[in-house]
Amino acid sequence: YAMFLSLIFLIVLIAAVVGFVFRHEIKTNFESNLNLALRDYNVTADRHSEAVDTIQRTLHCCGVQNYSDWERTEYFTQRGIPRSCCKSQDDCSEEDLKDLTKAKPKVFVDGCFFLVTSTMESKMSIVAGISFGIACFQLIGIILACCLSQYITNNQYEMV
């Protein structure tokens, strides 16, 4: 049991170190994937389009850097900016969403990349604290499992 806990502890520790070392690559990869999701965005319910809509609705953002990123997509030429960018669903018409100047006061203008990364960075202290707490419990479990094993080994010939 102690070996199993030690293995899990090492895996989590390695994952944390790799995540910290490659955090800039993770950001770059996320930005390129978000750009790809915008480029391939469509009205059919695929996972990437749903993810973009969820991010835009939840964080009140639009596009990668700003709302004008949608202008370079095929979706914009057909339908304009998606409804998930609208501040109020009642106030957004299709005509407004097809024109960037008309859409600006009615949609979120901030880009999602900065908001997602800043939200993640602001929550990192909470994640680090929880991870440290779990690591402490794992270390206590490893120590207690070793103590129990030692106790059983020392008392194996004792009569009960």
Gist of the model:
This protein has 160 residues and is mainly alpha-helical.
Features:
signal; 8 helices; mainly alpha; 0% strand; Tetraspanin-7; Cd81 Antigen, Extracellular Domain, Chain: A; 160 residues; Tetraspanin/Peripherin
3D architecture notes:
Helix content is 66%, strand content 0%. The chain has eight helices and no strands. The radius of gyration is 25 Å and the shape is rod-shaped. The mean pLDDT is 86.
Unreliably modeled segments:
none
Distance between the termini: 25 Å
As for the CATH topology, it is Cd81 Antigen, Extracellular Domain, Chain: A
How many discrete domains? 1
The CATH homologous superfamily name equals Tetraspanin
Q: Rg to the nearest angstrom?
A: 25 Å
The amount of helix comes to 55-70%
Order of helices and strands: HHHHHHHH
Strand content of the residues, in percent? under 5%
Task: Give the topology, please.
Elements: H1 2-21, H2 23-39, H3 47-59, H4 74-79, H5 94-97, H6 100-103, H7 112-122, H8 124-154
